[in-house]
Design a protein that fits this description.
The complex is a heterodimer of chains A (805) and B (133).
Chain A (H helix, E strand, L loop, with lengths): L2 H7 L1 H12 L2 H22 L9 H27 L20 H7 L9 H5 L1 H9 L4 H9 L19 H11 L1 H9 L4 H22 L4 H4 L7 H4 L4 H6 E3 H4 L13 H11 L6 E5 L3 H17 L10 E5 L1 H7 L3 H18 L2 E5 L2 H9 L5 H10 L4 E6 L1 H8 L3 H4 L3 E3 L6 H19 L2 E2 L1 H14 L7 H16 L4 E2 L1 H12 L8 H8 L1 H6 L6 H15 L10 E6 L6 H13 L5 E5 L8 H6 E2 L4 E2 L1 H8 L3 E6 L6 H13 L1 E3 L5 E3 L3 E7 L3 H9 L4 H14 L5 H6 L2 E4 L5 H21 L3 E3 L2 H11 L6 H22 L7 E3 L2 H4 L1
Parallel strand pairs in A: 2-5, 2-6, 3-4, 4-5, 7-8, 9-16, 9-17, 10-13, 13-16, 18-19
Antiparallel strand pairs in A: 1-3, 11-12, 14-15
Helix pairs in contact in A: 2-4, 3-4, 7-11, 9-11, 16-17, 19-21, 24-25, 24-26, 25-26, 25-27, 35-36, 38-39, 38-40, 39-40
Chain B lengths: L9 H10 L1 H20 L2 H6 L18 H48 L1 H17 L1
Keywords (chain B): Membrane, Transmembrane, Transmembrane helix
Pfam families (chain A): AAA_2, ClpB_D2-small
GO cellular component, one term (chain A): cytoplasm
Chain lengths: 805, 133
């Protein structure tokens, strides 16, 4: 299709735009109503002069009638043209649905000039709306329009032959226009975000048109009819313990058009259509997901677009908590439950919703009521439909073990949704939030909100996590006087909330990450290879190149003791999470018995939560340090195999624990003798790395699949003299600082350093022996001098070699 | 069909629409409103449940030979059915009247639609006549 052809088929919409241009809509409406009123008034006045008096009032009456009718016909024409190409939920055979044109696109095409296609996006209401929703400011738009840019001509667009809507057109323009692309990417808006914003604007425009068509079947059909409640029964007891589902869940904002949860709702409808045993149990750990599905089903019924069998049906939620607390006696409770079920059947239009079925079963069990056998006959009857919910664990432990319940319910397991599908749910909520708070959301901010919620919130499921975050960020943004919420604001919000830095790498932080090696070296002496590969991995993770379905990074540190393995981990915690205390530390040599795994992930039989599970939950953003990893039991190693691979594990109580925000560091002394040997023989450790790893595998210390799961295996070599000197200097500097707080000047001299290096050359303890020598010798000596009064505040201490011997 | 309007001047496009597509659409809108009235007064459901008790209220007779209980159940249930019948009939009557009114109104609009040029020209002419005379 050529651009000209596209414009030609969009002609019906163009009549509306030209009409709006020369004769604005509001003016038309005011005039039409005024004409109607004036016609009525003049008609009344004309009666004064009966029988037949041809006067001014009569003349005016006919004039106003003319104006009114002309404007009305014009309005009909206008509305008919707008609706061309509109897709309706209910097929009304109403004309024009077969047209492949899109109103939002036409509004841009109308203003598009063939020599500068992009300009119309900056000059039309819909176009500007798409750019604002992409996260741009009005001032930036002007800058771009008046900047030196290369306009693109319409003929350069490669339009498809069948159907072009606004997003597909915008995508073609985006591809063709280099300056636009550069402008958007300068404002960190990528194609996905731009097209997403365009799509959103198009859908909003279409919703407006749908809403304006008060004469359409979809709008007329949504008006509740009178008299239905007289034909169906009322249920007094159900009224006491049952609440209409839409009073507890807001179904009005749900959009059926976006197709969200379509599979689940259709499955629900199909089961409920059955003649008997039309009962569904929806299994999901989040009650919100279940309510969302049931709500969408109810919304379809209310809109009259569900299957005819569900016409006039109502979903009533059984409030079993107040039911069970109202009765203290088994037989009374049983009688009440039966009464409610009987009344639901006789009412004839009720679908019963029971939240947390297993909770209901166990709560009435305390009064001795056997609910499964009590309600079983009702569940098999053809007059009652029940929708129930259960969590995965409850379903397996309570319902699967009760055949009388299990066989009566058809199972629906909702799909686990990722960030992408959740965007649609967030978009549903935006209009009401924007209206309530006067805050405007840009599309990239919503996208980033769902992505960060998915990645960084370890509790809960999607889309609930994202919705919670949306509710939290709104007052936060209002407090900071933010008018348009942008992607950057979301990053700031997340880092304030969690301490983890996400989103755009800011200048200061960029410097920090760029110079991570130097930062790490401020605390870690030597170990260049190790520091380089760690910094590389961290950069990969922060730049978004890393795999989001795994931990942030994971390393296996191999090397003799006291060479800086723990220090590197602390330094990493400090530079990545802002605090060296952001570290969970496990000594894995304590987890080598048969109980090890249950100590870490908990015990179902004893209803005990595991140490690893609870610590990771409490500190989801931290470094997980696993000392002496090789000493852990085999099943513990298997557990970490899964954590390293998927970034999550399931604890004994069936709850998922996310490890995707952890930097996992396992340390091991394995192969250190081999490392020592290589060093003694003067070999280069980097070249020996593969050999050392092979040796570890050969000795069956670690399995190859475990080693391969780590982002990097990092060898720490024994410290050399120069490095020991640096450590000694670093540690003495710390002591000097402490003493200067007491107004004592501590002089660091070569003699002391040489002494420490000599002490620190113990191959078994490495750098740690330097620390020990400082404690044992230097600090003791200084303490003695202070206590004896030899050194007073304001004086100087210099230690000589003789004093140390 | 949009080819019809293609490049046509506004008035020509309008006239084509008025007697083609516009007329068809008018009927569709009438159809929608008539459908709405029958839906709003739920004719089908009320007819089906015309003799059902009001809001399905009533007593269940426990059985056995208890003349008093039998009589009271009979009276209560009969009453409920009578109430149901009367209200539903009334509503259906109102619905029917609305339906007929809507039909008449639709016909009236249809006539105006078809005779639009005559009515418009006529009203201008009449108004002019009044002013002139």
């Amino acid at each position: 299709m050529t651009f000209k052809q596209l414009k030609e088929i969009s002609a019906p919409h163009f009549y509306c735009f030209s009409l709006d241009k020369f004769f604005p809509k509001t003016l038309r409406n005011v005039l039409r109503k005024a004409a109607a009123l004036a016609a009525l008034v003049s008609f009344a006045f004309s009666f004064d002069s009966l029988p037949l008096y041809l006067g001014l009032a009569d003349g005016l009456f006919f004039l106003f009638i003319f104006i009114y009718l002309t404007l009305s016909f014009l309005e009909f024409f206008y509305r008919s043209m707008i609706n061309e190409g509109l897709q309706t939920r209910i097929n009304e055979k109403l004309l024009g649905g077969e047209k492949n044109i899109d109103y939002a696109l036409s509004s841009i095409l109308f203003a598009t000039s063939e020599i500068d296609v992009t300009l119309a996006f900056f000059e039309t209401r819909v176009g500007i709306e798409t750019l604002l929703r992409s996260g741009l400011d009005l001032a930036e738009l002007k800058n771009f329009v008046y900047s030196e840019r290369t306009p693109i001509v319409a003929s350069s667009l490669n339009l498809p032959n069948d159907f072009v809507d606004l997003p597909s057109f915008a995508s073609l323009v985006y591809e063709a226009d280099k300056s636009l692309r550069a402008f958007l990417s300068k404002n960190s808006i990528n194609k996905e975000e731009f097209i997403g914003a365009v799509n959103w604007v198009m859908n909003t425009e279409n919703q407006k048109i749908h809403k304006d068509r008060f004469w359409s079947r979809e709008n007329l059909g949504a008006i509740p009819s009178i008299g239905t409640s007289w034909s169906y029964g009322v249920s007094a007891d159900l009224g006491k313990y049952g609440v209409s589902f839409d009073r507890l869940s807001n179904v009005s904002s749900l959009l059926i058009e976006n197709g969200y949860r379509n599979r689940e709702v259709t499955a629900l409808e199909n089961v409920l259509l059955r003649r008997e045993e039309a009962n569904v149990i929806i299994i999901d750990d989040s009650e919100d997901v279940v309510r969302d599905i049931v709500g969408r089903f109810l919304k379809k019924i209310r809109l009259g677009i569900s299957l005819p069998a569900f016409e006039h049906k109502n979903i009533i939620e059984l409030d079993w908590t107040s039911l069970t607390t109202s009765y203290k006696n088994k037989s009374e409770l049983e009688a009440e439950i039966l009464k409610i079920l009987n009344q639901s059947i006789s009412a004839g239009n009720i679908i019963l919703y029971i939240r947390d079925l297993s909770g209901f079963v166990s709560s009435v069990k305390s009064l001795g009521v056997n609910l499964p056998s009590l309600i079983s006959p009702y569940l098999s009857s053809k007059n009652l439909s029940v929708i129930a919910s259960a969590t995965n664990a409850d379903f397996h432990f309570f319902i699967e073990t009760t055949p009388s319940l299990l066989e009566k319910f058809e199972r629906i397991v909702p799909d686990a949704l990722g960030a992408e599908a959740s965007v649609a749910v967030l978009l549903e909520q935006i209009p009401s939030i924007e209206k309530q708070y006067g805050l405007i959301f840009s599309f990239p901010s919503i996208l980033s909100l769902t992505k960060t919620a998915d990645r960084f919130i370890s509790y809960g499921e999607m889309p609930g996590k994202a919705l919670d975050m949306l509710i939290e960020i709104t007052p936060w943004a209002i407090e900071r006087n933010i008018e348009v919420l942008k992607e950057n604001d979301v990053s700031v919000f997340v880092s304030e909330k969690t301490g983890i830095v996400t989103g755009d790498i800011k200048e200061k932080e960029a410097g920090k990450i760029e110079h991570l090696e130097e930062l790490l070296h401020q605390r870690v002496v030597g170990q260049n290879e190790a520091v380089d590969s760690i910094a590389g991995a961290v950069r990969r993770a922060r730049s978004g190149v890393g795999n989001p379905k795994r931990p942030l990074s994971s390393f296996l540190f191999i090397g003799p003791t006291g060479v800086g393995k723990t220090e590197v981990s602390k330094a990493l915690a400090e530079s990545f999470f802002g605090d060296e205390k952001k570290m969970i530390r496990f000594d894995m040599s304590e987890y080598n018995g048969p109980e090890a795994a249950s100590q870490l992930i908990g015990d179902f039989a004893m209803n005990k939560s595991g140490l690893l599970a609870s610590k990771v939950r409490d500190n989801p953003y931290s470094v997980l340090l696993l000392d002496e990893f090789e000493k852990a039991a085999r099943d513990v190693l298997d557990l970490f195999l899964q954590i390293l691979d998927e970034g999550v594990f399931t604890d004994a109580l069936g709850r998922q624990v996310g490890c995707r925000n952890l930097i996992i560091i396992a340390t091991s002394n394995a192969g250190s003798s081999f490392i020592w040997e290589s060093i003694k023989q003067g070999k280069n450790l980097i070249q020996e790395k593969d050999k050392i790893i092979n040796k570890i595998i050969e000795e069956k210390i670690f399995r190859p699949e475990l080693i391969n799961r780590f982002d990097g295996v990092i060898l720490f070599h024994p410290l050399e003299k120069k490095e020991l000197e640096d450590i000694a200097r670093l540690e003495l500097e710390k002591l000097r600082k402490r003493l200067s707080d007491q107004n004592i000047e501590f002089v660091i001299n070569e003699e002391v350093i040489n002494f420490l290096v000599e002490k620190g050359s113990d191959p078994e303890f490495g750098g740690r022996s330097v620390n020990r020598a400082i404690q044992d010798k230097i600090e003791n000596l200084v303490a003695r001098k202070i206590v004896s009064g030899e050194t007073l505040p304001g004086s100087k201490i210099e230690i000589k070699k003789e004093e140390l011997l | 069909m949009s080819e019809v309007y293609e490049k046509s001047p506004f008035l020509l496009a309008y006239i084509k629409w008025h007697y083609g597509r516009g007329l068809k659409e008018l009927f569709a809108v009438f159809g929608n409103f008539l459908w709405f009235v029958s839906n709003f007064f739920s004719f089908k459901l009320l007819l089906k449940t015309l003799f059902y008790p009001w809001k399905r209220l009533g007593e269940t007779y426990e059985g056995g030979l208890n003349l008093n209980a039998f009589a009271s159940t009979l009276i209560v249930n009969g009453l409920m059915r009578a109430v149901g019948f009367c209200t539903k009939t009334l509503v259906m009557l109102v619905g029917l009247v609305s339906y007929v009114f809507l039909l008449i109104f639709s016909f009236f609009i249809f006539v105006i639609w078809v005779l639009a040029p005559i009515i418009l020209l006529g009203s201008v002419a009449l108004s002019a006549t009044f002013f002139v005379i």
